[in-house]
Amino acid sequence: MRDEAALHTVSERHAQMVTRRVVIGAGLASASVACAAGFSAYSPTMGPGRKTGPIDALLIDETTEPPRQMAALVKEAGWTLPVVSIRLDASGQAGLARIFDTSHAIVGISSGATLFCLERIAWDHGFRLTGRSQRCANDPGDDTFQQDVTALLSGSHPPAASPSELTRAYRPSRADGMLHAWVMRKSASSYVCRRRRDV
Amino acid sequence: MKLPPNVSKADFAAALKAFAGIVGDQWLFTSDEDLELYRDSYSILWGETDERTASAAVAPDNADQVVELVKVANRYRIPIYPISAGKNLGYGGAAPALAGSVVLDLKRMNRIVEIDERNGYVVVEPGVSYFDLYNYIQEKGLKLWIDVPSPGWGSVLGNALDGGVGVTLAPYRNHFDAQCGIEVVLPNGRMMRTGMGALPGAKTWQQFRPGFGPRIDGLFKQSNYGVVTKMGFWLMPAPESFATGVVTVPMFRDIIPLVDIVGRLEQSKIVQGLWTLSSPTTGTPGFAAHEAGPSKPQDAKILAILNDPGGVDMGKLEAAAKSSGLPFWACDFNFYGPKKLIKAQWDCVRDAMREIPGARFKLGEIRRLPLPPEELAKTRDLGPLGIPTLKTFDLGPMFSYEGEDVVGHIFFSPVIPRTGEAAIEAMEVFAAVARKYKLPCPPLQFPSSIFERAFLFAIGLPVTRSAVVNAKIRAIVSELVAISAERGWGEYRTAPAFYDLVMGVYSYNDNALRDFLETIKDAVDPNGIMSPGRYAIRSRHSRDADV
Q: Which range marks the domain in which residue A152 is found?
């Protein structure tokens, strides 16, 4: 069984992973997501609609600049929300596992390659990708992506008809220059992956 | 509901009920949404009728539950397919080898059973990933290293059983060769331990591999003779220091003496770290990183030769390299251990390589380990330092082939002789195929020295969601397998879609090896329930059905 000392270490690491606590304003929560202009692609599952529940964390891909910019924008708004750097290395795994264990819905901004990895890690924790949009990462000044992130954070988008449609619809690449905003929700009744156990 | 082959709906329902009774309802997965996750994301048969998809999945918590599940599978003749982490993308992922099998998902069995710093070993269950084991060692402050494959999310045990490899010291790189002791649930539901583990209360299970009598551990590698529930591995003591030394040689055919000399050094155990062959003509970072100054911009003339649609003329490339002041070959050696040992090893390499006229040498800084976090953050490749990552998913330059999005890759991975002549031949042969089909491969591809006595020549081929393009890739793989077999080269590992194809070339004396493996299969798994089709080892039922 897992020992307490190890748990403590993981907890400390998680604390380091949560880069900052930010506040997202009510204005963001009511922002429209209807504008899709400027996107190279836009999931038909995205758009204004019913709320699907609160978001527990915003995950940002630290390997690309735009997600960091987005996190800064989120910071200017109003709700309390952990913003977490996605680190797909050994030190990041424990923090990610803790986020997945303690969350029910997460929003992220990442490359397709990072989303591909993260989605598969999330599956084992009972999460499914339920919303996603993408745009060219080198398209500065386009605020529709920000609006899209806002919609995901506010939960004002409907869930995808089938998660598998979404999983098939993006390139698991970083080289293609695309940036993805997405939401994952814990939907499975149980999840396969449990915290590592030491005997 | 999808049914396993030759199983009635009533029997399948009864089996599922019995499975749930063993593990609990919440650990039995039958919905389409859940089973979607047991598809191979890199399947070269995606969406086709031949795609190998599961009928259900069941996730036990411990070996006793595995025993009970296997007994139920036997009772109802349900094909089961154990997976560990299910992350060996390109080699099957979480999908079964036979469509309709029930996946036995062992991720919940993630205990690090024992770790012994003094004797340098660990015993793990199937669900322990490289990340888990690495983090555990770090948390405990143990002076041990692990050898990791490029994606670190895989299972330590599963990767070894699949024939996976890493990039540190030779005795640890071939992961199955680094194992010591297996606990396995046989297809009849009986649990067995190999080697010294057969002795109740054994104190040396992870210390003496041969055991008593025949050594049978290899029967569980790339096979379907049981569910491995525990496995021991020898671990590497954390080295004091690390360094990379680069040897360059000027001429194209210098590769022949170079490989011979390195071979002698490896066979003498002087060189034990991975060495990497590259050509500075391509601007390979492995070489540029060790140059005194900034890397040289690529010469336009060299670029034209490399991009010649008719293929790279090595004579012209050699001449162009010479006029640019570039050596033709670079060989990066990784060294581990005390500083004085690294210096001594480097001296031996230098002395031996001086046989080659024009050879040049540069030993990088001998860095004390562990590296500080800020230095680790700048290190491009953490694999040689025994640190698991998922960076490999960021590196793939392929994103389109034949107008289709590339969603993954499969590897064609032949083993070729450890000689410079064979390396040249393989480079020519495989480059010709790449040109013929306009594959997104670099103009020069190099053999890898991961194995101690043979080269591995791994070629990544694109996987798309287009059945037409995927069919073309399958045909290319068939051609590559045939071309290789004609030359006496065979693959060390392959994707499930090619199990039969590859096993078919291991046909010496009218398929004596396959017949032997299937004789064992019939003896230990008379009902053919265990991983049917895996590595083309078929049960009597499957063979009879084909007649």
A: 4-186
A4 to chain B, any CB pair closer than 8 A? The answer is no
Is B396–A173 a contact, with Cβ atoms under 8 angstroms apart? yes
Nearest CA distance, A138 vs chain B (angstrom): 17
Residues B245 and B365 in one domain: yes
Q: Label residue A97 by pLDDT band (50, 70, 90).
A: confident
Q: Is B146 on the interface with A (CB under 8 A)?
A: no
Structural domain includes residue B375 = no
CB contact under 8 A, A190 and B87: no
> Taking residues A48-72, what's their average pLDDT?
72
3-state helix, strand, coil split of chain B in percent (to 5) is: 40, 20, 45
| Same domain, yes or no: B428 and B518 | no
Does A88 contact B127 at a Cβ distance shorter than 8 Å? no
Domain-embedded: residue B380: no
Q: Does B62 touch chain A (CB under 8 A)?
A: no
CA B165/CA B148 separation, integer angstroms: 8
Distance from CA of B133 to the nearest CA of A (A): 9
B36 vs A: CB within 8 A: yes
Whether residues B318 and B209 share a domain: the answer is no
Does A107 map to a domain? yes
Inspect the interface and report whether the beta carbons of A163 and B87 lie closer than 8 Å: no
Whether A172 sits inside 8 A of B408 (CB atoms) is: yes
Same domain, B93 and B120: no
Torsional sign, CA A179, A185, A189, A193: positive
Whether B501 is in a domain gets the answer: no
Q: Report cis status (omega within 30 of 0) of the bond before A172.
A: no
pLDDT in tens, B95-141: 999 999 999 999 999 999 999 999 999 999 999 999 999 999 999 99
A186 CB neighbours in chain B (<8 A) are none
Asked if residue B255 and residue B212 are part of one domain, the reply reads no
A57-66, B234-243, B323-332, range with the lowest pLDDT: A57-66
Same domain, B83 and B134: no
The domain tally of chain B equals 5
pLDDT at position A104: 92
Report CB contact under 8 Å: B396, A192.
no
Q: Does residue B178 share a domain with residue B76?
A: no
Is the pLDDT reported for residue B296 higher than 60? no
Q: CA-nearest residue of chain B to A10? A: B139
Is pLDDT larger for residue B272 or for residue A81?
B272
List of chain A residues whose C-beta atoms are within 8 Å of the C-beta of residue B111: 196-199
Residue A192 placed within a domain: no
| B307 C-beta neighbours (distance < 10 Å), count | 9
Name, in order, each residue with C-beta under 8 angstroms of A93's C-beta and a sequence gap of 6 or more.
A121, B131, B135
- The predicted-structure confidence for B15-74, as pLDDT tens digits, reads as follows 999 999 999 999 999 999 889 999 999 999 999 999 999 999 999 999 999 999 999 999
Cα separation, A158 vs A57, whole angstroms: 18
Measured between beta carbons, the chain B residues lying within 8 angstroms of A196 are: 110-112, 128, 132, 135-136
Instruction: Answer yes or no: is B252 within a domain.
Output: yes
Domain end among B43, B77, B105:
B105
Range of B524's domain? 506-546
DSSP for B225-262?
S-EEEEEEEE-EEPPSEEEEEEEEESSGGGHHHHHHHH
Which ipTM did the prediction report? 0.89
pTM given for the model: 0.90
Co-location of B363 and B461 in the same domain: no
Average confidence score pLDDT of chain B:
94
Kindly state whether B379 is in contact with chain A, defined as any CB-CB distance less than 8 angstroms: no
**Quick check: is A69 in a domain?**
yes
Largest Cα separation within chain B, whole Å, is 76
Question: Chain B residue with minimal CA distance to A93?
Answer: B131
Q: Give the CA diameter of chain A.
A: 55
